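[Meeting: bench + compute handoff]

Bench side (C.D.) handed over the final construct sequence. Compute side (W.E.) agreed to return the predicted structure before the next meeting so the bench team could plan truncations. Sequence as handed over:
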Amino acid sequence: MGRSTQEVSFLKGWESEKIDNGHEGTLIKIIVKKVMGDLKRFFQLNVPEQLVGIEDHVQQIMSNIDAEFNGTKIIGIYGMGGIGKTTLAKVLYNKLSSHFDYHSFLANIRETSQCKGIECVQKQLIYDITRSSCDVFNVDEGVNVIKSRFMRKKVLVLLDDIDDSTHLNALVKDGSWFEVGSIVIITTRNKSILDEGRAGYMYQLNELSLDQSLILFSRHAFQKDSPPSDYEVISRDVISTRGAPISS
């Protein structure tokens, strides 16, 4: 059964005559941008539900990224293993993704390259950006394909767990292979990889404070932000001994 005129009048929407003096082309562009933004949410990376302190880290990093994305930006996130670098990088990636048409998340590069070679990672990057398969038989061939096909593409790339500068050179080098405005996020345990001049911005991720760790522990153990009074002392003893990442 159709809606009445009164019902339709209460629906939220855009009125073409009120946008850019009635130019329908402008309205169409707004609608397309809105729809594409909504669709991209379905392809965002999964992150744990129990996160503590993550927004503070994201805001600090975002404040160092030009709002207009001028220039290619390489962001390095470093810290000890298991501290939550990948989670932070994924949240940042999701926050930025709506600004890019080309994305790639390359997980566990250290492990993948050891088992299958960095050529396998190159192939995945090429496929993610071009949406077409490409046989890569050696590292140099992979570099040539990336350089030739990505030059006119503004990309968002997350390189997770890089531990070898040669692998970084095989995938993004200094970022000049991509269109201006691209962003590359790197997570690593090895800060020296970022010190070689590639990262325009480096962020060290440390353990949560004792109070934040207590919140995270309590959410998992007691399904609330603080432990029952009878368990507060032992809970603090547990987290002060173990420490805590930003998620679990």
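W.E. noted at the follow-up: The mean pLDDT is 80. C.D. will use this when planning the next construct.
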